[in-house]
Design goal:
Blueprint: H1 13-32, H2 36-66, H3 74-101, H4 126-139, H5 170-179, H6 181-188, H7 192-196, H8 202-229, H9 235-261, H10 279-288, E1 292-294, H11 297-302, H12 309-314, H13 323-336, E2 343-345, H14 346-359
Helix pairs in contact: 1-10, 1-13, 2-3, 2-9, 3-9, 5-9, 8-9, 9-14
């Protein structure tokens, strides 16, 4: 897949400061306008999560039990239940939990939507996610050696990543990682590489793993023990439906997240390029390191509005349901300052991700054009 070149114009420090002022104004204006419609929106999402989850579980149980006596209802109920269960998990993870844990709805004063205490429906703990995602990833987006989301310690996606023979296996590792994504997220905070290299003691690893183990056990018992056992002797179809629903959620989440930062035109940055970083510099890095998805309202909802990854990285604490309305303003500002606004359809963006995974399986060097595109005032 040929790479389309969109050279970003270098900005002077004065331009970077002006760039920041314009984006700060969008944030301030949007924050000042938050109110009842935003609270109603997130409460509707929470209701959709509950209703689709209950219906999904009920249909799985109904299909398993009644299917033994009325085979005609078995497969329709099982498929519908699995899809509704998967939908509930996707909505909860993407549009509810992810955005709530960013503190987007803390202004409501509702403990059900408090960013620091919300616990989500996934194998990993919310506390660990708030550290690896909210703190590390959003602060050091696409900075090599500082953002652990670049390849997640398993994959080589950019030519600037040092090649090792291990990466020859990544065409096999990547799909397995997608299927088991929630478990990969669960252990990301543990930094197992440090333990393997002897930089972390086994005692320290065990201590860090305790809350993760508790959360993993809770998820397994709830989805794969209690729910199937409610069907009695017909537990196996329910277990299968629960497993497939979680796999669907995992793959969808993996696709959306990888499309957000690993497309052809997304950039990575050296540690040196962020030394003394100004606010305008930080904003510029978020734009250059992020990728949007086009697809309309349903794409926005199903992706947790990470279809507007650029806006999310510029304003992670603003309610995500506002991103669609501020996106045209962000795009116009980027155009005036000569910065490429990376957006495309899901097939296009994901195709670029797949190409990166395949291309950088093998040794490769950064293109000659990339060093000139590192963040640096003119």
């Amino acid at each position: 897949m040929a790479r389309r070149q969109h050279p970003d114009r270098p900005l002077s420090q004065a331009e970077l400061d002006a760039f920041a002022v314009e984006l700060d104004a969008i944030r301030a204006e949007t924050a000042a306008s938050l109110g009842q419609r935003d609270a109603d929106y997130i409460r509707r999402v929470a209701a959709w999560v509950q209703v689709s989850g209950l219906l999904g579980r009920a249909l799985l149980l109904l299909g398993a039990i009644l299917g033994a006596f009325l085979p005609v209802v078995f497969w329709p109920a099982l498929i519908a239940g699995t899809l509704l269960f998967a939908l509930s998990k996707i909505l909860e993870n993407m549009e509810l939990a992810h955005n709530v844990m960013h503190g987007q709805y803390d202004w409501m004063g509702d403990p059900h939507f408090a960013g620091r205490t919300y616990e989500w429906d996934i194998a990993g703990t919310s506390d660990n996610w708030r550290h690896t995602h909210n703190l590390q990833h959003h602060t050091w987006t696409n900075v090599r050696g500082m953002d652990d989301d670049i390849g997640y310690g398993l994959l080589r996606i950019f030519p600037e990543q040092r090649w090792r023979p291990f990466y020859l296996a990544q065409p096999l590792i990547a799909p397995v990682f997608a299927l088991l994504f929630e478990w990969g997220i669960a252990i990301q905070h543990l930094k197992l590489g440090r333990w393997i290299k002897g930089r972390m003691s086994s005692a320290e690893l065990r201590r860090e793993f305790r809350p993760v183990r508790r959360k993993m056990l809770r998820q397994v018992v709830r989805d794969y023990v209690i729910l199937p056992l409610l069907a009695g002797p017909f537990f196996l179809p329910v277990l299968l439906g629960a497993i497939v629903a979680n796999l669907i959620r995992n793959v969808w989440t993996w696709v959306i997240i990888f499309c957000g930062h690993f497309t052809t035109e997304a950039q990575t940055f050296s540690k040196e390029s962020v030394v003394g970083e100004s606010r305008g510099h930080w904003y510029l890095r978020q734009v250059r390191g992020s990728s949007n998805l086009e697809g309309g309202r349903w794409m926005n909802v199903m992706s947790g509005n990470l279809s507007h990854q650029i806006e999310h990285h510029l304003f992670p604490d603003l309610p995500a349901n506002r991103y669609a309305e501020i996106a045209p303003r962000v795009r116009e500002i980027c155009a005036r300052y000569g910065q490429h606004y990376n957006t495309g359809s899901l097939p296009r963006q994901f195709g670029q991700v797949v190409w990166r995974l395949l291309r950088h399986t093998f040794p490769s060097r950064p293109s000659k054009s990339r060093p000139a595109r590192e963040l640096a005032p003119a």
